[in-house]
Amino acid sequence: MHNTLEQVFGYPQFRPGQEAAVSAVLAGRSAAAIFPTGSGKSLCYQLSALLLPNLTLVVSPLLALMQDQLGFLQRHGIAAASIDSAQSRDDANEVMARARSGELKILMISVERLKNERFRNFLQQVPISLLVVDEAHCISEWGHNFRPDYLKLPAYQRQFNIPLALLLTATATPKVIADMQAKFAIAPDDVVTTGFYRPNLNLLVEPVRGQDKRRRLVEWLGQRAGQPSIVYVTLQKTAEQIAQHLSQHGIQAEAYHAGLPHEQREAIQRRFMGGQSNCIVATIAFGMGIDKSDIRNVVHFDLPKSIENYSQEIGRAGRDGQPSDCLVLANRDSLNVLENFVYGDTPELDGIRCVLDELQAASPDGQWEFLLGPLADQSNIRQLPLKTLLVQLELRGLIAPRYAYFAEYRFKFLVEPEALLARFEGERRDFVSAIIQTSSRARTWATVNFDTLYLQHQAERSRVVKALDYFQERGWVELESKQMTEVYSLLMTDFDAQTLSAELHGYFTQHERTEIARIHAMLDLFATEHCLGSRLAEYFGDENAPQQCGHCSVCHGQAARLPEPPVLPALVDKNFQALCGDFIHRHEQYNGSLPGAERLTRFLCGISVPLFTKLKARAIPGFAALEDYPYAEVREWAETNLAA
User: Fold this and answer.
1) What is the dihedral of CA 202, 203, 208, 214, to 10 degrees?
2) What is the C-alpha separation between 644 and 641, in angstroms, rounded?
3) Alpha-carbon distance 434 to 583, whole Å?
4) Distance CA 55, CA 543 (A)
């Protein structure tokens, strides 16, 4: 272990916690490594992978994270690859071939990849030593960034006979750690935490009124000219505006957010990493997997989404151990925008009922098939909460995921059909002949007819898909698949849909309250009169941090009194008909019904749901007209006016 650390990675010794995590895995025990950002979590799986006999499978939530780690591994001569949505099919096939042959030590994937039937067929054929779950807090409903698909990882571990799991995260509260531990059966002694206190980070909270923020930001960054800095904002348009404002005031800055083309984001990141660009104004799309050790300043121009997000974002500063400043320009102005993100993810009661009705109307053979996009449109539930709803139905024992498949496979012959047939004999030749004959052929593409193949030739779907993959690997056909279809087994359909809808709506409403409370816990942290470093460590259950760090704004005697937001004109004076009339009219035309208070509130607060895309709601006068008001107040106002 120590030899590999020095010879392959060039490190003379382990950092705190690393040795304990690696030793547990090499002794055949699952483990969790909970270290602050930048403390070397990745090395725990990288070193283990080299010393384990078979493949290490790494599940990671973000493409940027994977690319960054792959670059590091390849520079150290370690055979690692990823399969991701940005790759061509040829590239993915090549990676799978390398894994099958035993050449690869590490394969990185997103969690969604595990729903793909071709990929799961492939995993059944490859021995795997270790499942690594990066950003493992995503598995817990009590954590931030909960990803419903992560809940299935323990089942996948069993399905693919993976003996060990290693969970990695930088932001887990005691409740989330207990959840992770239970789901992967990790012994308490194999949960390695190294504390959350970072002595080189100066945590500064400065109360600033909304209209003064830009001036203060220019002033503050101006005193730190040329130092690598990240400015975090909530909205994409704010990133553009602030980057432009800084550039106009002599501070070269670039905007970075998920709305930019992939190549442009890559180029901005490369310039920042290489030191040609020193200031990035970003939404939280930026920073995951950014392994730049000399970031001196992290500024939150807008409030972060939660204490966990705050901790993760400031964790990108000072990875080289040198002092770094983390400033929050704090007020309550953007509080409603943050809260609106939360409210937008709570499905309407009718939407939940719509999904349950679909489930009960599914085929009598005990199977439910659907496409996620159309189901989201039909139920008017965003895709992420819809996935959460499906997981809740799983956890209640109503459905069980069987597989996901591409509804349509089509192929183009790269050799003549006769030449393809000539490569097989006996039963195999008959099977290949059946595929060719039953596929409906347009000019260049032939579409596979799975139903006919099964009825006439008893050809199982999985065998057909394997054969097509094989033809593609050999270069005999070009293969395309589309329309991801989810397939679930129905375990129970005689439930009371009305009662269950109400119960599930209650679950989502409870989650909504938890998330709103999380935002307010963060405001309390920023307005605290106790040491910020100590309060932050305490939130994550770290009892070893100093009671007073001596270098945060509170220790400097500057506890933050957050200014109240500007007073808004009273809602009671707003003209309901002027703001909502056009929307109500279009909704009635399209839907044949009047919108309820919840839907009106979303329209007025500018919260997107699938139906609004169809109605082109953004172009209707009144959309987002009340986005600065608290959601609950707008809802009450809408209810009152509808009742009148």
Assistant:
1) 60
2) 5
3) 54
4) 37
User: Are the C-beta atoms of residues 174 and 196 closer than 8 Å to each other?
Assistant: no
For residues 437 and 209, what is the distance between their CA atoms, to the nearest angstrom?
72
- How many CB atoms are closer than 10 A to CB 344? 17
CA distance 401 to 382: 20
User: What are 96's two structure tokens?
Assistant: 């799978």
CA 396, 399, 405, 408 dihedral sign is: negative
Under CATH, what is the fold of the domain 2-193? Rossmann fold (3.40.50)
- Per-residue pLDDT of 125-146, as tens digits, reads 899 999 999 999 999 877 777 7
2-193 against 201-331+513-539: fold identical: yes
Provide the 10 A C-beta neighbour count for residue 541: 16
Average pLDDT over residues 188-208: 94
Interhelix angle 63-75/41-51, nearest 10 degrees: 50
Helix%, strand%, coil% for the chain, nearest 5: 50, 15, 35
Encoding tokens for residue 420?
Answer: 């393809």
For the segment 542-572, what is each residue's pLDDT rounded down to a tens digit?
888 999 999 999 999 999 988 878 888 999 9
Give the contacts of 178 (CB within 8 A, at least 6 positions apart). none
Say which CATH topology domain 201-331+513-539 has: Rossmann fold (3.40.50)
Residue with tokens 């939660």: 306
Confidence band for 405, pLDDT divided at 50, 70 and 90: confident
Residue 367 one-letter amino acid: Q
**Cα separations in angstroms, 43 against 38, 46, 146, 422, 438:** 11, 5, 24, 50, 51
Secondary structure letter of residue 570 according to DSSP: P
Helices (H), 135-235: 153-159, 174-183, 213-222
- Sheet containing 446-447, strands listed edge to edge, beginning at the edge strand earlier in sequence: 367-371, 477-490, 399-413, 446-447, 440-441
Residue 310 CA, chain-centre distance (Å), reads 16
Per residue, the 3-state secondary structure of 495-514, as one string, reads CCHHHHHHHHHHHHHHHHHH
List CB contacts of 451: < 8 A, sequence separation 6 or more: none
Measured from the Cβ of residue 357, the count of other Cβ atoms closer than 10 Å reads 12
Which residue ranges make up each domain of the chain? 2-193, 201-331+513-539, 363-490, 571-643
CA distance 369 to 384: 18
Strands 440-441 and 446-447 turn out to be antiparallel
Distance from the Cα of residue 110 to its chain's centroid: 9
Torsion over CA: 587, 591, 596, 602 (sign): negative
Using pLDDT thresholds of 50, 70 and 90, give the confidence band for residue 285. low
